[in-house]
Design goal:
Elements (H helix, E strand, L loop, with lengths): L20 E2 L11 H11 L1 E7 H4 L2 H9 L19 E8 L2 E9 L4
């Protein structure tokens, strides 16, 4: 009998003191786990969209973040992609600034 896959479901987004968030059931992937992460996304049947503070936030919010010495993005409310079923997987800092990872089940035609 094949192993049952527990599909990721939306969770309440509770951001930390820096405005970051990680879905409570998101596996703890390391930077070098790119292929493992891709396989998990396929297994979960997820479509992902990345939204970057730099291009999503109003200019004054982006300027405020980049002028600061602290990685705090709690004043940014990431824009949700168009369509139904999107939920937040993570909001985290990258070399290019904060990014929000949105996910939804692949839409089957």
């Amino acid at each position: 009998m094949p192993e049952k896959i527990n599909l990721m479901q939306p969770a309440l987004v509770v951001r930390d003191e820096y405005g970051m968030f990680e879905h409570p059931y998101l596996p703890d992937f390391e930077e070098e786990d790119g292929e493992k992460c891709k396989a998990w996304i396929v297994q979960q049947g997820l479509q992902l969209v990345m939204v970057y503070l730099e291009t999503d936030a109003p200019e004054e919010i982006a300027d405020r973040y980049y002028a600061s010495d602290e990685p705090h993005c709690g004043h940014w409310e990431p824009g949700k992609p168009e369509g139904d079923g999107w939920f937040c997987l993570a909001i985290h800092d990258t070399d290019d600034g904060p990014v929000c990872c949105w996910a939804r089940r692949e839409v089957q035609p």
